Amino acid sequence: MRPLAIITGASEGIGRDLADLYASDGHDVLLVARRDAALRALAAELEQRHGITATVVAADLASRAGCDAVVAACAGHESRVVALVNNAGLGAVGWFHEIAWEREQVQLDVNVTALTYLTFRVLPWLRRNGRGHIMQMASVAGFQPGPLSAVYYASKAYVVSFSEALHNESIGSGVTVTAVCPGPTITGFQRVSGVVSGARAGGRRRCRRARWRSWRIAGRAPGSGSCTPAFAIVWRRCWAATCRAAGRRRWCGASSARGSASVRGGRRVRCCRAIAVHARDRLAETPR
Q1: How far apart are CA 179 and CA 190, in angstroms?
Q2: pLDDT at res. 168
Q3: pLDDT by residue (tens digit) across 151-175?
Q4: Are 90 and 107 a contacting pair, CB within 8 Å?
Q5: Of 22, 117, 152, 158, which one is the catalytic site residue?
Q6: Rounded Cα–Cα distance for residues 121 and 67 (Å)
Q7: 132: closest CA among 175, 164, 168?
Q8: Share above pLDDT 90 across residues of the chain, in percent, rounded to a whole number
Q9: Which of residues 244 and 49 earns the better pLDDT score?
Q10: pLDDT score recorded for residue 104
């Protein structure tokens, strides 16, 4: 029987490319996202191209019921599960006190709660099987604070810390836990988050420059508050790169950060496919 990979946020962007890579490597895939039509189209394409079985779970991971639907879809196949890719995520842009609480709550539910719950349910299967990996989609945002995206940056810091802790706990079990930390990458994420109105999956076209708010915090120059000049420069460059949205530039390499549990990208705008390939290839280098 073929091994099974669970991939959330699989309808577009990095998740879609990861699903294609797992299928090309001979894995059956369990595709999870909210958009049923997009998932079914992807499933049909993967089955035709790679001769694998693709199962669709259209679920909202902001709810416990959605997460339980993913677990239920694996019933009877726990011994085949070798990979969990927690790729689903979303963000919001704006002043923290001005963004609707419902929007912030959904970010936490998907970026933190769903990721943690699915890891909690799947990790025992992998340890019992004595093999496999969990890939958590974090971000370079997880290594610094993020004015105007405070909750998103904080949620990614959680993912990095959580993943590194679990990686340490899993040493010797045959299971690895990896935090993938891309830099700015043009996917549907920007469209949903309100960063770039013209963004679409895969970064196949240039997006118009988006207008963005001043990077001064509360009217103060960087460095006069909690935001250091160095961070302000990095943040501004990341934001500008996201708005430029080339997306087709060649991957120029990435280095591991904080040990073998993290794969960190730089500040250049990335192509989804390049990030997916790099993340998959680095898993083979991670000691178990």
Answers
A1: 21
A2: 94
A3: 999 999 999 999 999 999 999 999 9
A4: yes
A5: 152
A6: 10
A7: 175
A8: 60
A9: 49
A10: 96
Q: Which token pair is 32?
A: 């999870």
d(CA 20, CA 18): 5
Distance CA 249, CA 275 (A): 12
pLDDT tens digit string along 222-246?
A: 333 333 333 333 333 443 343 333 3
Q: Strand pairing of 255-256 and 262-264?
A: antiparallel
pLDDT tens-place string over residues 76-120: 999 999 999 999 999 999 999 999 999 999 999 999 999 999 999
Q: Are strands 81-86 and 4-8 parallel, antiparallel or unpaired?
A: parallel
Rounded distance, CA 31 to CA 45, Å?
A: 12
Rounded to an integer, what distance in angstroms lies between the CA atom of residue 126 and that of residue 131?
Answer: 6
Task: Render 137-206 in DSSP notation, one character per residue.
Answer: E--GGGGS--TTSHHHHHHHHHHHHHHHHHHHHTTTTTEEEEEEE--SB-SHHHHHHTS-TT--GGG-SP
Catalytic-residue membership of 158: no
Which strands sit side by side in the sheet containing 28-33, from one edge to the other?
54-58, 28-33, 4-8, 81-86, 132-137, 175-181, 262-264, 255-256
DSSP 107: H
The torsion angles phi and psi of 251, rounded to 5 degrees, stand at -65, 125
Residues ≥6 apart with Cβ < 8 Å to 270: 182, 183, 184, 185, 203, 247, 249, 251
Q: How many CB atoms lie within 10 A of CB 236?
A: 13
pTM of the model: 0.73
136 three-state secondary structure:
strand
Give dist(CA 141, CA 160) in Å, integer. 10
As a dihedral over the C-alpha atoms of residue 274, residue 236, residue 156, residue 93, rounded to 10 degrees, the angle is: -110
Half-sphere exposure of 286 (CA within 13 A, CB side): 35
